[in-house]
Amino acid sequence: MTTESTRSIDRADIATLRAAVRGAVHRPADPGYQTIAFNVAVSRRPWAVVDVLDADDVAAVVEFAAVNAMTVAVHCTGHGATPIDGTTLLVRTGKLDRLHVDSAARTARVGAGLRWQSVIDATAPLGLAPVCGSAPGVGVVGLLTGAGVGPMVRALGSAADYAREFTVVTGDGTIRRVAPDENAELFWGLRGGKATLGIVVEAVIDLLPLRFFYGGALYFDGDDAAAVLYAWHAWTQTLPDDADTSIALLRLPDVPGVPPVLAGRLTVAVRFASLADPEAGAAILAPMRDVAQPILDAVAQMPYAAIGAIHADPTDPVPAFEDSILLRDLTAETIAAVLGQVGPTVQSPLLMAEIRLLGGALARPAAEHRAFCHPNAVANVQVVGVLAPPIAELVPGAVESLVAAFAPFSDGARLANFAASSDPAVIASCYDEDTRAWLAALARQHDPAGVLAVGQVVR
């Protein structure tokens, strides 16, 4: 940062910002200054936190930042947060909680402060459902802007495929309606480009007539890991496009909320979701049920509102170190690499190593182009460790080692929603060269002062 920029920030007047917005503004010494991300290992100490109430508030924050040589970041739940410091204003969207469901049109207008579970709970009584991610506790907008790969991505495609329009504030402080028929280039870039092109205030999404699914997870003892993983790999080769699955090696701690049968040991979870009827879904899953005796069989017909049960992601903030990588090949050698790093013969400090099968609807062309660049990847790998004593020092090396073991089966690409980072190299891995160039050009056009050039954005 230049000396001139530093002086501008030093001169910034909090009273001016407070007068410009209707929402509350919090400086570090104020009680409302809460900046903790879902990943509590991420350091976030913004110059101020603003609880915006509408698009005008967001625009005012952006304009204040431009005048004072600051940047603006956005927070809903803190999933996917990246570090920020005292040169940044943090827009908190929790007050943007409007939800309007049009059951006749099968759409929902969703404020940027809402989580997927809120939308699911409001639409379920109408027999409708949004296409969401694996963790319904995350924010709607964050998932959409990262394209959105959920537990039914093979059957239904990405969540971003169901976005109809956005209300967004671009880096020049302009409030824009963004849809296929208006600001079409921004519509392309918002669905995959994360916060590169603006701060989304509201989104309109399509809803599907879904009440139930057949799915959940089979959990196996770690001693059966090799048999289960090799069988899973063979099974995926014949899986229909409308069935979804992932497999995860888990070392869950013995803490409240973790079933005792899974706690303090290595287990293998085979996640499964199908829109087929229960009898047909059970027939598809049968080969995996026969591999070994599950220690917990949590697969059944479920209401769509219980979709979070498939992955059972944690809901409480944790200090995490994680990484991901997309696979171009999924072979027996890939499985051997996993077992060599986190299998039953290894004392691994990692919480989870997951392989999520892709393809199906995700690989087919979308009705509207989006900034999603890796439709032909066969699987996504996510690796997570918890930075807690006594294993904290071991976790980063273990994550990096496992990701490196997948390198022979990957081009090094990542999915944006699995790559929370401000590292330009990591961000670049989420896009092909043409997409990066076009996102950067649009950012220069709509954010000439670089107000939004912070965090996971392309520049």
TrEMBL record:
Superkingdom in the source lineage: Bacteria
All copies of domain FAD-binding PCMH-type, residue ranges: 42-210
MF-aspect GO terms: FAD binding; oxidoreductase activity
SUPFAM superfamilies (alphabetical): FAD-binding/transporter-associated domain-like (SSF56176)
Cofactor(s) named in the record: FAD
UniProt-listed Enzyme Commission number(s): 1.5.3.-
PROSITE patterns in the record: FAD_PCMH (PS51387)
UniProt cross-references to Gene3D superfamilies, sorted A to Z: 3.30.465.10, 3.40.462.20, Uridine Diphospho-n-acetylenolpyruvylglucosamine Reductase, domain 2
Pfam families linked: FAD_binding_4 (PF01565)
Transmembrane segments: none
Family annotation (PANTHER family): BINDING OXIDOREDUCTASE, PUTATIVE (AFU_ORTHOLOGUE AFUA_1G17690)-RELATED (PTHR42973), FAD-BINDING PCMH-TYPE DOMAIN-CONTAINING PROTEIN (PTHR42973:SF39)
Family, as annotated: Belongs to the oxygen-dependent FAD-linked oxidoreductase family.
Name of the protein this chain belongs to: Mitomycin radical oxidase
Annotated organism of origin: Gordonia sp. MP11Mi
Gene name of the encoded protein: mcrA
